[in-house]
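Reminder to self: tokens first, then the designed residues, so the page reads top to bottom the way the pipeline ran.
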């Protein structure tokens, strides 16, 4: 019987040998639903002029028998476009309750399958990053150790090496970052698709760190309802790419757990514009001029917390314009007594409004967006 440390050494040595050899797609030998399982994606091995499905070996769960298998789409143009064509990644559901992006990825790849022979480049799609979150129909990744805890996977990229003892969610992030995205070598531009968190309504909007070239163009091509200038969150997919100088935005598609086909349509259309802009699926019509007449660009995202626990009744809707001091929510206790009225501290536009009345002290019952001349917020801020 081998000790765990001996196993670890063998696995480490094998991994080191693999890394010194020429990287090739590593097929584990498993096949699920007719789809091969891989633990490493080398784009050179993906069939040309085709759309291919894989499962990525993402991590393991506590019984040790069935790994997490993460669906991966790859659409590639003909072989002579491999070097010259751009590479786009579209990921969704790193938060397990944020589902509109799942359908967007599916629809984009339904389209790319019919166009693969004429593509000029590569598109990678991950429709469901956080499968444990999806299984539990909630935001975070559940880890069973220590009686259970929850991890926000969008704060731990680029993850930690499983061969160094990383947790399951850290391993998942590491394997996606290194074994699908090739530590950025497989990605020139990235979109990460989200929705607002469960319990609130929101429009179609995005976070954009416009300090990196092309990010502003990317955000404008979306023609969002709100374009939030933002310096990003460490450990998020967007910011990990941006820190590596790969243009990326976080696209927020309405509310959690609500299928909004109107917003999905707009994001699919945006991705078609982007595929044209990157010349992966070029149109003949020249560079697209975004129509920003209905887009509100804002630097500040200001959360409006309740001071008391109770039941929130909101008085505004998303995208409503509000004035300074406007009442946005009433908090009542179990008797119906009014405990407080939450007001907007500034004039602006509502980005988020609670739909779930259950409110604890400190819960942000709404968020308003506006602009400022404060130099500390020049790259965007969240209050
Ligand atoms: Zn999210």
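Designed residues (383 positions):
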């Amino acid at each position: 019987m081998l000790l765990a440390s001996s196993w670890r050494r063998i696995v480490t040595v094998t991994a080191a040998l693999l890394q010194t050899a020429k990287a090739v797609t590593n097929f584990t030998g498993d096949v699920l639903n007719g789809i091969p399982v891989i633990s490493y994606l080398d784009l050179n091995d993906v069939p040309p002029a085709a759309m291919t499905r894989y499962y990525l070996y993402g991590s393991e769960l506590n019984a040790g028998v069935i790994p997490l298998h993460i669906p991966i789409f790859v659409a590639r143009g003909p072989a002579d476009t491999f070097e010259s064509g751009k590479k786009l990644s579209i990921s969704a559901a790193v938060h397990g309750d944020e589902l509109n992006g799942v359908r967007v990825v599916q629809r984009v790849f339904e389209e790319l399958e019919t166009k693969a022979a004429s593509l000029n480049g590569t598109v990678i799609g991950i429709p469901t990053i956080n499968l444990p979150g999806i299984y539990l129909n909630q935001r975070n990744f559940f880890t069973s150790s220590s009686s259970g805890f929850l991890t926000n996977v969008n704060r731990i990229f680029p993850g930690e090496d499983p061969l160094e003892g990383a947790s399951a969610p850290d391993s998942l992030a590491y394997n996606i970052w290194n074994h699908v995205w090739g530590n950025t070598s497989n990605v020139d531009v990235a979109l990460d698709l989200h929705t607002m968190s469960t319990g609130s309504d929101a429009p179609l909007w995005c976070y954009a760190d416009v300090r990196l070239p092309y990010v502003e163009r990317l955000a404008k091509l979306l023609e969002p309802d709100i374009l939030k200038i933002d310096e990003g969150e460490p450990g998020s997919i967007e910011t990990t790419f941006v820190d590596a100088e790969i243009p990326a935005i976080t696209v927020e598609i309405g509310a959690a757990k609500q299928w909004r086909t109107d917003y999905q349509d707009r994001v699919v259309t945006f991705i078609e514009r982007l595929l044209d802009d990157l010349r992966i699926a070029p149109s003949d019509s020249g560079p697209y001029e975004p129509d920003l007449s209905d887009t509100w660009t804002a630097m500040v995202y200001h959360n409006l917390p309740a001071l008391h626990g109770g039941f929130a009744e909101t008085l505004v809707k998303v995208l409503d314009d509000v004035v300074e001091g406007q009442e946005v929510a009433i908090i009542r206790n179990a008797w119906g007594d009014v405990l407080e009225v939450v007001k907007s501290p500034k004039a602006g536009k509502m980005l988020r409004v609670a739909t779930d009345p259950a409110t604890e002290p400190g819960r942000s019952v709404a968020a308003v967006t506006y602009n400022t001349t404060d130099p500390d917020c020049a790259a965007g801020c969240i209050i």
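The domain at 24-277 is CATH 3.40.630.10 (Aminopeptidase).
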